[in-house]
Amino acid sequence: MRKGIYILPNLFTTGSLFAGFYSMVATLSGDYRTAAIWILAASIFDGLDGKVARATGTTSKFGVEYDSLADVVSFGVTPGFLMYAWALRPFGRLGWVAAFLFVACAALRLARFNVQVDTVESKRFIGLPTPAAASMVSATVLLFYHFGWPSSFKKLAILVLIYLLAFLMVSNFKFYSFKDPELIKRQPFGFLVLIVLLFVVVAAEPVLMLFTIFLCYILSGPVAFILTWPRRRRLEKAIHKGHESNRPLQ
């Protein structure tokens, strides 16, 4: 701390924290759509702070800890508070317990990430990232406003969603981290065309497409786990047979 801190990446982290806090202000005012949009803004700031720090060589222990504390607020407390005020309040104790479960699992997910950050591969996250979980909450709120779905359906859907997201955050499912260095290298021309088409589709139906994208990402972890289960079983059996063959005779 005596040597100072890096300003640029920590400014983006502060932007994420501000967006999360302002989302809570909007929630208190009953403006849930604005609250959802500010959570998405917090996710953008959170994605930029790490990339800026790595690109400029300004990563630091202080920045990692500050980022985690900001994430607890912006992607734990803020979406939990939004879900409770918007849909879970009528459930009484069950509602606020569900909202607290989301907050607690987000904090546990971040604590586990900090402990494992140097021991797991950078291309995969273990457990659903908290920004993705919070963004799914935001996309769901915006989707309900977009289609004008009834309040009774909203309550049940959010109650199921919050338990699902809480479980995925503390699960061992692996999710792509988008930190692969190959992404910024030369890619085929068709890859650029695909990205342009994706932007066009998102611009045409932003609410529906954002919800679809986040839903696909959230389901990618469990689906990948199921699809790779036979291969992992064969590998475990092969390792077990290898240990058995190497065991000395009695």
Automatic annotation (TrEMBL):
The keyword Ion transport does not apply. It catalyses: a CDP-1,2-diacyl-sn-glycerol + L-serine = a 1,2-diacyl-sn-glycero-3-phospho-L-serine + CMP + H(+). One of its GO terms (biological process) is phospholipid biosynthetic process. It is found in: Endomembrane system. This is CDP-diacylglycerol--serine O-phosphatidyltransferase. Its EC number is 2.7.8.8. PANTHER family: CDP-DIACYLGLYCEROL--GLYCEROL-3-PHOSPHATE 3-PHOSPHATIDYLTRANSFERASE-RELATED, CDP-DIACYLGLYCEROL--SERINE O-PHOSPHATIDYLTRANSFERASE. GO terms for cellular component: endomembrane system; membrane. Its main location: membrane. The chain crosses the membrane at residues 7-26, 94-113, 125-145, 157-176, 188-204, 210-229. Keywords: Lipid biosynthesis, Lipid metabolism, Membrane, Phospholipid biosynthesis, Phospholipid metabolism, Transferase, Transmembrane, Transmembrane helix. Pfam families: CDP-OH_P_transf. It comes from the Bacteria. The keyword tRNA-binding does not apply. Belongs to the CDP-alcohol phosphatidyltransferase class-I family. One of its GO terms (molecular function) is CDP-diacylglycerol-serine O-phosphatidyltransferase activity. The gene is pssA. It is a multi-pass membrane protein.
